[in-house]
Known about the structure:
Blueprint: E1 4-9, E2 18-23, E3 33-43, H1 45-52, E4 68-76, E5 88-91, H2 105-109, E6 123-127, E7 131-133, H3 140-143, H4 146-158, E8 170-174, H5 178-189, E9 193-198, H6 201-210, E10 214-217, H7 224-231, E11 238-243, H8 250-256, E12 257-265, H9 282-287, E13 290-293, H10 299-312, E14 318-324, H11 328-336, E15 343-347
Helix pairs in contact: 4-5, 7-8
Amino acid sequence: MQASPAWILEDQKGLESLKLVDKKPVPSLGDHDVLVRIHAASLNHRDLAIAKGAHSLVIHPHVVAASDGAGIVERVGPQVQGLQPGDQVCTYMVPNKPADEPVTFADISRGLGQQVDGTLRRQAIFDESALVKMPSGLSFLEASTLTCAALTAWNALFGLASRAPKKGDVVLVQGTGGVSVIALQFALAAGATVIATTSSDTKAQRLHALGAHHVLNYRRNPKWGEAAKQLTPDGQGVHLVVDVGGLSTASQSLKAVRPEGVIAMTGLLGGPPPDSDLNTLIDCLVNLCTVRGVLLGTRRQFEEMNRFIEEHQIRPAVDERVFGFAEIGEAYRYMEEQRHFSKVCVRVD
């Protein structure tokens, strides 16, 4: 087998730690291994944090970066079941995890792009548990966005089956990152009314183009949670909030949610707003709501999500700028500067 180029992390001192090397894959497959020709990858804020050594994230030496990708199966090990050469697949971040078992931070810290070689390479050998079949009808670029952001959004919306959005419900999504944009697309497909937030008029236009019923500018209106509540038909508030900011957005999420509504906490993108009190568990009582921590999703949920994508013919939104394999440093910088809309994607092959 020929050497396969790959982007590795030599260290965790920032984007300069990313290096392009010739990395020779193991020519023989283990019993449960699958050789994949990767065609596209996408980036997450986790990838930035790993490159910078933030949040005490530790890598395996010279690990291949990034967790999200899509490609074609080329060969399979003798004990592999459910996959065969020619299958189109997406990566699942956490290999060797039971299909129905919730993912923890410890699991993710052992996952692709951190302790296990990731997707920024042209050929990759994965354990079969790190792969799921792609939804039909998607390009490799679109499918490469599903591993982290889409699965997190799916879990946030549908992880509690009894509280999943339906026709007549109102869902609030925050910002224009990968989780929020695909959550908007999923919620619309379920028949919900969607309120979105952004600080950019240009991005607001894109949100409207995707189908958002209302878009609030959170810089011009710091009380966007209260404004969202007033946009609901009965003025009681939204049924479900997909919160990506954590401390920076929790207070307004609580203002927006209706009694017996759900706030799905999916991210920690911001610190606490200035001159504000931190929210506590008592706020759940005061606002009569459920606040739920959401971290990725199970492999079974991934399969359910892919069926939903096929059924509703959803095409995941990607940023209009797509990077080449030689432009990984630029792609990371583009995401770091928050110039993207939804997902930053890379053509690998």
